[in-house]
Design brief:
- The chain is globular, with a radius of gyration of 16 Å.
- It has one domain: Uracil-DNA glycosylase-like domain (Uracil-DNA Glycosylase, subunit E, 3-Layer(aba) Sandwich), CATH 3.40.470.
- The protein has 194 residues and is α/β, with parallel strands linked by helices.
- It contains eight helices and six strands.
- The relative contact order is 0.17.
- Bound molecules: iron/sulfur cluster.
- The site of iron/sulfur cluster has 14 residues, from helix 4.
Length: 194
């Protein structure tokens, strides 16, 4: 694989794990392919499975609201998932499914070279940041790894299920936007591949 088109073609024809048997459409990443911010959720949901696009259901509307509240929009970020196919019934993806799909995520990061990675929710944070990540305690905190800054926020679906998380999510998105503006105002440097 050398290009976005090749990557997406692999994903669209992938039978690499059992989710290929139950999905309708694989969901490839979407957004600005030169974005400094890569947002990673765990897996597509029901509406995403139908349309083949990330964050098109109610969670997508909440994501748009959180981005807008921070002065951002989808055109400022690249959105993707750890597994590209919907787990049945929206269950968490199994470990072997995540393992099978991780090469695609790594290649997306290789092509994008993000300066900021935002994990959307516990499952993504536990895969990308650390296995013992506690989203309720650690959301909004930052770590630096290989010239890339990583953080995690509540998944927009979690905010929909529990509106008491909205204010914290809004503040975290504002901090992400501030961090992005600071990075972009500094001398640009090409980060290593995460
Ligand atoms: S989830 Fe990933 S590894 Fe599994 S079939 Fe879909 S694209 Fe392939």
């Amino acid at each position: 694989m050398h290009t976005w088109d090749e990557l997406n073609s692999f994903i669209l024809h992938c039978g690499g794990c059992p989710l290929a048997q139950t999905r309708r459409l694989p969901v490839v990443g979407k957004g600005d392919r030169h974005a400094a911010v890569m947002m990673i959720a765990e897996a597509p949901g029901a509406q995403e499975d139908i349309e083949g696009l990330p964050f098109v259901g109610p969670a997508g509307k909440m994501l748009d609201r959180l981005l807008a509240g921070a002065g951002l929009s989808r055109s400022d970020v690249y959105l993707t998932n750890i597994v590209k196919c919907r787990p049945p019934g929206n269950r968490d993806p199994h470990e072997e499914e995540k393992n099978s799909c991780m090469p695609y995520l790594r290649y997306e990061a290789y092509l994008l070279r993000p300066q900021i990675i935002v994990c959307l929710g516990r499952v993504a944070a536990q895969r990308i940041i650390s296995a013992d990540y506690r989203i309720t305690r650690q959301h909004g905190t930052w770590i630096r790894r290989k010239n890339c800054d990583l953080t995690a926020v509540y998944h927009p679906s979690a905010v929909l299920r529990d509106p008491s998380k909205l204010e914290a999510a809004q503040l975290d998105f504002i901090k992400i936007a501030e961090h992005l503006r600071k990075l972009l105002s500094e001398k640009p440097d090409v980060p290593e591949r995460p």
